[in-house]
Design a protein that fits this description.
heterodimer; A: mainly beta; 7-stranded mixed β-sheet; 4-stranded antiparallel β-sheet; B: mainly beta; 6-stranded mixed β-sheet; 3-stranded antiparallel β-sheet
Chain lengths: 124, 106
């Protein structure tokens, strides 16, 4: 079964850091680009970051640029999101999602597999 | 920054057709994907490359993209189609989602 499982969400104080993980199984992990997408409570989807097969292409949304870092370990079929300088408006469910393209920015394949999400709450 | 605009809500009677629009500058020049999100669930890809359906998505869902507007059409609407729908495209190495449309089946 093709699966993505996020972990690492937690309650963190403003200004703090958190590292999210996404474990993949059931498919050739190194053949897919991946994205992080978040959803604040009661709000819509917001793309956060994307990374291509071998990390050749890495992209960030304006709201997280300079604070978040995406990375992947193909040997361990894992995706990561290092989040620093967290703010209250980073509170959301964070999803990892698979993209079929070699460069996700082409947008040709859509995000065809999603995890169940992990919850990040930034509050004092 | 690039924006995609969707109507906040669409209501449809069972068996009728629901149409959801997504507007953005020269959207027809980009690939558009559509996602369905039922309450409490993760999003599901229902359309990619403007018009293509992933395996398992019913033919009742169809889409088009031209000019400044992409459209998702749900034919013969069923109760199971009640969900939030999001369009998505890429611009300048940034993925952009529309604000979402809540489809209510009355």
């Amino acid at each position: 079964e093709v699966q993505l499982v996020e972990s690492g969400g937690d309650l963190v104080a403003p200004g703090g850091s958190l590292r999210l993980s996404c474990a993949a199984s059931g498919f050739a992990f190194s053949s897919y680009s991946l994205s992080w997408v978040r959803q604040a409570p009661g709000k819509g989807l917001e793309w956060v970051s994307a990374i291509s097969y071998y990390s050749t292409y890495i992209y960030y949304g304006d709201s997280v640029k300079g604070r978040f870092t995406i990375s992947r370990d193909n040997a361990k079929s894992s995706l990561f999101l290092q989040m620093n300088s967290l703010r209250a408006d980073d509170t959301a469910v964070y999803y990892c999602a698979r993209d079929g393209g070699s460069n996700p920015a082409v947008g040709a394949y859509g995000m065809d597999v999603w995890g169940q999400g992990t919850t990040v709450t930034v509050a004092s | 920054s690039y924006e995609l605009t969707q109507p906040p809500s669409v209501s449809v009677s069972p068996g009728q057709t629901a149409t959801i629009t997504c507007s953005g500058d020269k959207l027809g020049d980009r690939f558009v994907s559509w996602y369905q999100q039922r309450p409490g669930q993760s999003p599901v890809l229902v359309i990619y490359q403007d018009t293509k359906r992933p395996s398992g998505i019913p033919e009742r869902l169809s889409a088009s993209n031209s000019g400044d507007t992409a459209t998702l059409t749900i034919s013969r609407t069923q109760a199971m189609d009640e969900a939030d729908y999001y369009c998505q495209a890429w611009d300048s190495n940034t993925a952009v989602f529309g604000g979402g449309t809540k489809v209510t089946v009355l």
